[in-house]
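User: Here's a protein and a ligand (flavin mononucleotide). What would the complex look like?
Assistant: Let me lay out the input and then the predicted complex.
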Amino acid sequence: MHQEIKPSILYYGTPVILLTTLNEDGSTNISPLSSSWALGYSLVLGLGIGGKAIENLRERPECVVNVPGPELWTQVEALAPLTGKNPVPEYKLQASFRFEHDKFAAANFTRQTSVQVKPDRILECPLQIECAVRNIRVPEHDPHFAVVEAEALKVHADEKIVLGDNRIDPEQWSPLIYNFRHYFGLGQPLGKTFRA
Ligand SMILES: Cc1cc2nc3c(=O)[nH]c(=O)nc-3n(C[C@H](O)[C@H](O)[C@H](O)COP(=O)(O)O)c2cc1C
């Protein structure tokens, strides 16, 4: 039997990404997100319109999608109550968010210069995708979120997870999963698709 419900959140278990964007003073902001997907070299991100990330992307349309592994979850969580917005918007104040300009220091992450875009990468993330923003759309049915379409320009992978020249080894790589506001790693491998 299924039950019809109206959950307050619909985070049904997607990888966490740490989106780096460029602040007006040339420094890099970090925003944890779980709403993203990639198909070919097209990426789509779901961003709350009250945050610093979307403000930065509208002004300076480039970013890095840094993908952490499960061992980084406490550092990701150290970023969770922070925003790069100053002053902090009222709705974020009510949810106990506070302003932080230097999120690298706040979460003990290391800056790494990017190759094709201005925002820095996060050294500790085994996968880093430098992107150019190609389109930003606010859906009519929900004006609180923006749908950001980006093009992957350059992919950096830790050599430990690279198989051959241009493949990621799924035995070595695993994402950090955000499952209804709880962090999970992957379980045991189940099998592979006919195209693997
Ligand atoms: C694991 C995790 C996943 C999140 N996923 C999203 C998301 O997909 N989209 C979003 O807008 N905010 C998401 N958030 C909330 C933002 O990280 C939060 O609004 C943060 O203040 C954004 O920082 P900024 O204002 O400096 O951009 C998530 C937070 C965490 C901890």
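Summary: The longest strand covers residues 145-157.
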